[in-house]
Recover the amino acids of this structure.
């Protein structure tokens, strides 16, 4: 994507800029996380990639083909957010229909449909009309239809939405499996913990602009902070540790977490815990999480970066 | 050129139309009215086969028109409103194939809806020796052509409008088309502004003349509709369908979804 811009509104109204000058390269064979708060421009970007809307400015290619072209769509799969389907078709019929639209023969479409329904755990429900599917089943059917043409690129918009914890885990495993098969996954999601677990790289959008992109490890980097988890003697512990400069203490129900601003304070903190009669559970370097980075760049719900 | 995906879409429209309750219910009621009229004309003296043919043709016309409006208005617009369009257009299908596929599927479903009603009419005309079966078939074919043109109008409107707006505008277009002769004559007589008269004339030529497809009177009175007329009307319908589908595909190609 090179300078992709999308504005809505007519000449008389004030334009709403949904996407501003987005330049982004998604490497092949990786899981790429596409993040941003509501209204950041994620769905607009996906619609541009699929050719559902036309850019106001900028260009781009998908798998070497022009944005939204039939050639590009032949090699990609897409799972929309909260997917909807023809209610009066059954799962195998629906997938076979999408397979036929992808140019597969009748027999091949049916074969792929059965294999994918088995893969996503919906084969047992093959006799049900789609209107009787639960939210989680629809999401899994959505993933199956996105894979019907064995695509090189899979674009997923909030794939874990509506899934229970087991479903989320299965979805995560499916994404990793796709990467292992050499496919590129473009994952738009709000669930940062999931993104951090599976993605190789991320891009963060805010108010239509790209505010960060890169490998997760590079973006998060390291800090000098250390984190001690301590048990016992809560009252005395605060008094002893309070003498150390810049220390932060969070009391939990089971343990107390002590964050030290520098590594050299660890030994003093351990001595303080011993003096207070406490027990050290763990000592770890504090690592910034994706959520911390996201909040730092995008800010509070009001949208102000902190 | 229209590709194979259009036929795949058409088949899906046909399958889903058969499974939704609306279409079978329309067909059931249409057939019930025609059958009850048939038995009425059988048991009551003085009720002639002409009356039966008149009622049956009217029922086919009305139920066919309602089926056309309901079915076609909800196809393309419904796909956008229910967001199923995102799954479809992420596949390698051109938008014009989708539009044409929706149209072909709708027209096929309308034919299947009209067929049982026409079948009952043909059966009674044949068994009661109440006229030429061939003329009845010609008349129902011409009615189906009218529905096909109306479906093309609906698809053109659906390319930019919601289902409800599409249904309302399609009915309006049908009514105005039916009354357009009277409307233009009225405008010419009462309105002095030349612009309004020209607008009326433009409307006259732009909108389909659905009266061309109505040969009910000929069927009722056992008159023969010449094959040349059937051929000319078929070409007229084909031209109108091509025009409205062209408009629909062009508008839908540019639509932001």
């Amino acid at each position: 994507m090179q300078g992709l811009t999308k504005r809505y509104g007519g000449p008389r109204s004030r334009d709403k800029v949904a996407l501003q000058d987005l330049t982004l390269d998604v490497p092949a064979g990786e899981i790429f996380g596409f993040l941003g708060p509501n209204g950041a421009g994620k769905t607009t970007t996906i619609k541009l990639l699929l050719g559902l809307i036309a850019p106001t400015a900028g260009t781009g290619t998908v798998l070497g083909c022009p944005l939204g072209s039939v050639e590009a769509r032949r090699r990609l799969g897409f799972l929309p957010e909260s997917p909807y389907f023809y209610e009066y078709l059954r799962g195998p019929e629906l997938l076979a229909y999408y397979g036929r639209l992808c140019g597969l023969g009748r027999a091949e479409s049916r074969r792929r449909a059965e294999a994918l329904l088995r893969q996503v755990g919906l084969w047992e429900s093959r006799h049900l009309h789609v209107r009787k599917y639960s939210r989680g089943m629809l999401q899994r059917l959505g993933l199956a239809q996105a894979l019907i043409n064995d695509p090189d690129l899979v674009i997923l918009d909030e794939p874990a939405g509506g899934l229970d914890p087991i479903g989320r885990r299965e979805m995560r495993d499916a994404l990793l499996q796709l990467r292992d098969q050499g496919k590129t996954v473009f994952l738009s999601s709000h669930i940062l913990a999931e993104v951090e677990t599976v993605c190789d790289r991320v891009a963060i959008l805010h108010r239509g602009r790209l505010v960060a992109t890169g490998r997760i490890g590079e973006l998060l980097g390291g800090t000098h902070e250390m984190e001690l988890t301590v048990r016992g003697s809560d009252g005395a512990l605060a008094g002893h540790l309070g003498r150390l400069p810049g220390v932060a203490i969070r009391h939990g129900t089971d343990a107390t977490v002590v964050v030290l601003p520098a590594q050299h304070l660890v030994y003093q903190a351990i001595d303080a815990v011993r003096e207070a009669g406490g027990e050290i559970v763990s000592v770890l370097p504090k690592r910034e999480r994706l959520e911390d980075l996201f909040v730092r760049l995008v800010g509070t719900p009001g949208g102000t970066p902190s | 050129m229209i590709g194979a995906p259009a036929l795949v879409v058409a088949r899906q429209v046909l399958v889903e139309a058969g499974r939704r309750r609306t279409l079978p219910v329309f067909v059931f009621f249409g057939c019930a009215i025609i059958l009850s009229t048939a038995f009425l004309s059988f048991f009551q003296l003085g009720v002639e086969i002409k009356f039966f043919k008149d009622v049956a043709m009217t029922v086919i016309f009305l139920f066919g028109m309602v089926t056309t409006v309901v079915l076609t208005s909800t196809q393309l617009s419904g796909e956008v409103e229910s967001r199923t369009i995102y799954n479809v257009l992420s596949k390698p299908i051109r938008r014009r194939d989708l539009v044409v596929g929706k149209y072909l599927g709708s027209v096929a479903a309308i034919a299947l809806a009209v067929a049982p009603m026409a079948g009952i009419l043909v059966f009674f005309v044949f068994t009661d020796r109440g006229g030429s079966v061939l003329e009845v078939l010609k008349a129902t074919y011409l009615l189906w052509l009218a529905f096909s043109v109306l479906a093309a109008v609906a698809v053109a409107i659906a390319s930019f409008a919601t289902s409800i707006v599409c249904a309302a505008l399609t009915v309006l277009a049908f009514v105005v088309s039916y009354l357009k002769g009277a409307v233009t004559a009225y405008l010419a007589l009462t309105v002095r502004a030349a612009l309004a008269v020209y607008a009326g004339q433009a409307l006259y030529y732009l909108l389909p003349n659905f009266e061309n497809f109505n040969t009910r009177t000929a069927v009722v009175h056992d008159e023969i509709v010449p094959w040349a007329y059937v051929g000319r009307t078929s070409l007229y319908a084909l031209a109108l369908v091509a025009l409205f589908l062209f408009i629909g595909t062009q508008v839908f190609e540019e639509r932001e979804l």
Q: What stands out?
A: DSSP finds twelve helices and no strands in chain B. The mean pLDDT of chain B is 89. Residues 4-254 of chain B form one domain.
